[in-house]
Amino acid sequence: MTLETPSTPRTVLITGGGTGIGAAVARRFAAAGDSVIVTGRRPGPLQEIAKEVGGHAIAMDAADSASAEAAVSEVLGRYGRLDVLVANAGGHGFSAALDTDDAAWNAALGANLNTAFTTARACLPELIRSQGQIVVMSSLAGLFAGPSVVGYTTGKHALIGLTKSLARDYGPHGVRVNAICPGWVRTPMADEEMDEFAAKAGLSSREEGYRTVTRNVPLGRAAEPEEIANIAYFLGSSASSYMTGSVLVVDGGAHVVDVPTIAFADAGL
Asked: Which of 23, 132, 146, 157 could covalently link to 127 via disulfide, CB atoms 3.0 to 4.6 Å apart?
């Protein structure tokens, strides 16, 4: 995907920017000449990515209002403006309802929904001023339900509602808000899941795990983080200037598969 480089560098705030998709998004915007701020809970990875891309790192809790507002103030003090928010932070919620206590439920919604809402609310006044964009990182789990992931699935579904609500309310103010729903992506978190899956399923390796979970995906593989980052850059650029409230599914075609017919394909019918 080849997109224009903005004539004036923009200031881009990325939550969950230290590893995986967030780090790839930071690299993509920085490659276009934008000023990049990566945020997250772990200072070490944030500092590494910030140094790599010539950006700035802020250790913060994206779900905490005071922390989010302080981060925006720091961005404005350093760069004087804010143009794009990529709400990428997420995680938690990997259990079924009867195995999820109140603390685990609240942690799942905090990580997957509150991080986006709280940071977006803190950023919106500046994004209105700059006629900016918000890119919300949901998931294929925002459209479908996997086994024993009630908190994660609920939070990711809610992010799509948040995207549409923000787009409806702030489109008239010049702010565009769109969401991405990735399928399997080769990130450190997914690698850990593949290791656990491979061990429990009696598979020989992480790679066999990835091959197994993408066997019925039309493109037959997991995505690389850079492929998702390209979509985030597109949504944060003028190339998507008439898009708001949209949900882009980036899953190698997994969502087009009619699950009950997999047995027919496996039988060669």
From this structure: 132
CB 40 within 8 A of CB 21: no
120-152 burial, b for 16+ CB within 10 Å, e for fewer?
bebbbebbeebebbbbbbbbbbbbbeeeebbbb
What three-state secondary structure class fits 12? strand
b vs e for 197-221, b when ≥16 Cβ sit within 10 Å of the residue's Cβ? Answer: bbeeeebeebeebbeebbeebeeee
239 C-beta neighbours (distance < 10 Å), count:
13
Helix (H, G, I), strand (E, B) or coil at 48: helix
Angle at 76 between CA 75 and CA 77, to 5 degrees: 90
30, two tokens: 């920085």
Q: What is the pLDDT of residues 66-99, one digit of tens each?
A: 999 999 999 999 999 999 999 999 998 999 999 9
Q: Can you give the pTM of this predicted structure?
A: 0.95
Looking at 79, 152, 233, 242, which residue is catalytic? 152
151: tokens are 């908190």
Q: What does the alpha-carbon distance between residue 198 and residue 192 come to, in Å, rounded to a whole number? A: 10
Q: Cα torsion at 15, 20, 23, 29 (round to 10°)? A: -90
**How far is Cα 23 from Cα 31, in angstroms, rounded to an integer?**
12
Residue 192 CA from chain centroid, whole number: 18
pLDDT, tens digit (0-9, with 9 covering 90-100), for 207-262:
999 999 999 999 999 999 999 999 999 999 999 999 999 999 999 999 999 999 99
Radius of gyration (C-alpha) of the chain in whole angstroms: 19
pLDDT tens for each residue of 53-65: 999 999 999 999 9
pLDDT score for 265: 84
Can you tell me the distance from the alpha carbon of 43 to that of 24, in angstroms, rounded to the nearest whole number?
Answer: 17
- To the query of whether residue 210 is one of the catalytic residues in this protein, the response is no
Tokens of 238: 């003028």
